[in-house]
Amino acid sequence: MNIHIRQARPDDAPTVFALVQKAFEQEEHSDHQEQFLVEKLCLSTGFIPELSLVAELDHKLVGYILLTKIKIVNENSKTSYTSLALAPIAVSPEFQGKAIGSKLIAEAHRIAEQLQFGSIIVLGHADYYPKFGYKKMIEYGIKMPFDAPNENCMLIELRQGALAGVSGTVSYPKEFGIQ
Predict the structure, then answer these.
(1) pTM for the whole thing?
(2) Of the four listed, 34, 110, 164, 178, which is most buried by Cβ atoms within 10 Å?
(3) Within 13 Å of residue 131, how many CA atoms lie on the same side as its CB?
């Protein structure tokens, strides 16, 4: 299976919308609105075109990942640190379990590091993301702006020590609908 990962193009938008919708329609821990979130995030100031990636198999889109700029805000010291949010990652149901998501994550990490980002935050499956190096945010003194189980709130340092001295609460762009 020859998977090709590339930057998403504007003309991919309808296919990405349908792919994300289909990928999440059976997901238990979902509001089933991820496809609309992608639309909003791609129009937001936190959008980074190089970090909107699709996976192609025989010229058919079978996967998608988006990393968007976020902040980690420390109210005590009045400081903030720019990070990235991984949301969402989606693979067409018929292609799940074939390492397409892993390839998307690896390429997104590589590009994010190349773009000089130091970390990525994710709210996701506790048994999936640790294999990529994600650790619980709580170990870093970083928390979500909402209640979620600690084992699902994770981050990865793309550069060792990137989060040294960083603590606080994740601040998402308004497009996430979290205030």
Answers:
(1) 0.95
(2) 34
(3) 9
CA–CA separation, 92 and 95 (whole Å): 5
Nearest alpha-carbon partner for 123 in 164, 172, 166, 157? 172
- What CATH number did the domain enclosing 57 receive? 3.40.630.30
What SS3 class is residue 153?
strand
Chain mean position to CA 177: 16
> How big is the chain, counted in residues?
179
Tokens 């990529």, located at residue? 132
Pairing mode, strands 135-136 and 60-74: unpaired
The total of structural domains in the chain comes to 1
Contact 70, 85 (CB under 8 A): yes
Give pLDDT tens digits for 79-107.
999 999 999 999 999 999 999 999 999 99
